[in-house]
């Protein structure tokens, strides 16, 4: 299994966190104001949590949901605190694109259900409707 197949969702989140930080630092007035710091911190939290949250057989959508929840909070914060100008709209678009990217990226996680239980590997391929593989078995539900 390649690194992209295993860490694709986290990799996409890291790329968008980097794009958010670069845009905040280099775009507009080339000064990172408090609203942009919030956007950067939210994007970094999205990347960290997408990496930390495992894929589990019962909820393969969990990484995308966590990323989406943080994106919504980040967008609301940017809109409420900073108002809406072109810079904030771009930050909101980056947050939305991050959710879409994480949703379609591949990923795999190995988790245990408890002490004495065998580890279970869950993986999803490219695309949100892609088949899931759990311990080498194709799951079609």
Query: Over all CA atoms, what is the radius of gyration?
Result: 17 Å
Q: What structural class is derived from the secondary structure elements? A: alpha+beta
Strand content: 5-15%
Binned, the helix content reads: 55-70%
Count up the helices: 4
Beta-strand segment tally: 4
Integer average pLDDT: 81
How far apart, in Å, are the first and last alpha carbons? 23 Å
Counted up, domains total 1
Helices and strands, in order, run as HHHHEEEE
Q: Largest sheet, order of strands side by side? A: 1-2-3-4
Low-confidence stretches: none
Main sheet summary: 4 strands, antiparallel
Shape: elongated
Keywords: Membrane, Transmembrane, Transmembrane helix
Question: What does this entry look like structurally?
Answer:
With 141 residues, the protein is α+β, with helices and mostly antiparallel strands. It has one domain. The chain is built from four helices and four strands; from the N terminus they run ααααββββ. It has a four-stranded antiparallel sheet. Helix 1 (3-26) packs antiparallel against helix 2 and helix 2 (34-52) packs parallel to helix 4 (86-104). It is elongated, with a radius of gyration of 17 Å. The two termini are 23 Å apart. The mean pLDDT is 81.
């Amino acid at each position: 299994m390649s690194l992209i197949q295993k860490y694709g969702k986290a990799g996409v989140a890291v790329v968008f966190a980097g794009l958010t930080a670069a845009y905040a630092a280099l775009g507009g007035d080339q000064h990172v104001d408090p609203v942009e710091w919030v956007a950067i911190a939210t994007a970094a939290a999205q990347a960290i949590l997408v990496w930390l949250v495992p894929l589990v057989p019962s909820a393969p959508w969990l990484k995308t949901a966590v990323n989406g929840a943080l994106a919504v909070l980040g967008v609301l914060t940017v809109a409420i605190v900073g108002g809406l100008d072109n810079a904030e709209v771009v930050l909101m678009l980056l947050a939305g694109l991050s959710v879409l990217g994480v949703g379609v990226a591949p990923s795999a996680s190995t988790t245990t259900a408890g002490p004495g239980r065998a580890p279970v590997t869950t993986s999803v391929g490219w695309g949100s409707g892609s088949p899931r593989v759990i311990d080498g078995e194709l799951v079609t539900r």
